[in-house]
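Private note to self, pasted from the team thread so I don't lose it. Backbone tokens:
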């Protein structure tokens, strides 16, 4: 008999869409344009960008380019708005390539639609900044399927346009997590489960990382599904990401420890396509579906570009 699931918690990056394969080309398109505009050494700019990423603990800090030392040197004396205007072709390059490469994985929309039709509650959980996550969910038309988003706080100066610097989030469905609450800590998932009013055994976590997503699900007593298709990005893109990563030596050591600690861990099911999940479990409405209402997270923040 198939296990009954009343709550689906899904990871975002490399589970619903290929984050590596859209972010890396977009980022380097911006870098290449900025190198020409600023007439600087490419490696120097990459070093500066990595420094900003380490400072904030994320490799996708919005408008990190504006906080680099090389921009401060080259555009000294210019206001923030003047710097934005000068670097606009670089930001445009990022947006253009992102528009071309940010795509939902095959089966994602189909699978989410099936689960929503069964009135099974679906929420998203990510360590990405909330504004970045919302932008992607709205761009891919995934938001309407989700009852809530659990994401980390956005740090830094925000959008350089004063009219958009103060992010206005939807007034429901957004839960901002402490950026120090990292996978695979089971307490993170236990909190989500408790807030949604279901049992751990009736919860399914879907993610692409065995050592983070699947280990967290098992630690919280939830069911798990491994999105093994999320590892399909190229080795070249991965190395280009590592070049500017926010990971410190401590982060690398922690990752190594996790791999050793959870070596051999497996999920309840492995997915070659997100839509396959509908055949693996018995999905039913949760009590919270009535208690919380049927509204999904809003799209009020769609204009807040990361």
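Design output:
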């Amino acid at each position: 008999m198939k296990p009954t699931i009343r709550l689906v918690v899904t990871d975002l990056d490399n589970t619903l869409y290929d984050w590596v394969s859209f972010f890396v080309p977009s980022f380097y398109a911006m870098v290449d344009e900025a190198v020409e505009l600023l007439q600087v050494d490419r490696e120097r700019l990459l070093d500066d960008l990595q420094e900003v990423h380490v400072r904030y603990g994320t490799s996708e800090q919005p408008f990190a380019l504006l906080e680099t030392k090389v921009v401060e040197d080259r555009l000294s004396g210019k206001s923030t708005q003047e710097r934005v205007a000068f670097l606009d072709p670089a930001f445009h390059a990022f947006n253009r390539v992102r528009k071309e490469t940010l795509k939902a994985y095959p089966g994602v929309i189909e699978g989410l639609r099936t689960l929503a039709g069964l009135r099974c509650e679906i929420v998203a959980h990510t360590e990405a900044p909330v504004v970045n996550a919302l932008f992607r969910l709205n761009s891919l038309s995934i938001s309407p399927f989700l009852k809530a988003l659990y994401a980390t706080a956005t740090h830094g100066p925000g959008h350089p346009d004063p009219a958009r610097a103060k992010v206005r989030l939807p007034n429901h469905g957004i839960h901002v997590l402490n950026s120090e609450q990292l996978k695979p800590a089971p307490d993170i998932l236990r909190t989500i489960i408790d807030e949604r009013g279901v049992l751990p055994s009736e919860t399914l976590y879907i993610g692409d990382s065995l050592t983070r997503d699947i280990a967290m699900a098992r630690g919280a007593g939830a069911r798990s599904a491994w999105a093994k298709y999320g590892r399909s990005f190229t080795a070249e893109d991965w190395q280009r990401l590592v070049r500017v990563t926010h990971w410190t030596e401590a982060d690398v050591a922690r990752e190594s420890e996790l791999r050793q600690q959870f070596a051999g861990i497996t999920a309840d099911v492995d997915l070659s396509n997100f839509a396959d999940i509908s055949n693996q479990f018995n999905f039913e409405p949760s009590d919270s579906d009535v208690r919380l209402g049927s509204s999904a997270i809003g799209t009020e923040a769609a204009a807040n570009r990361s």
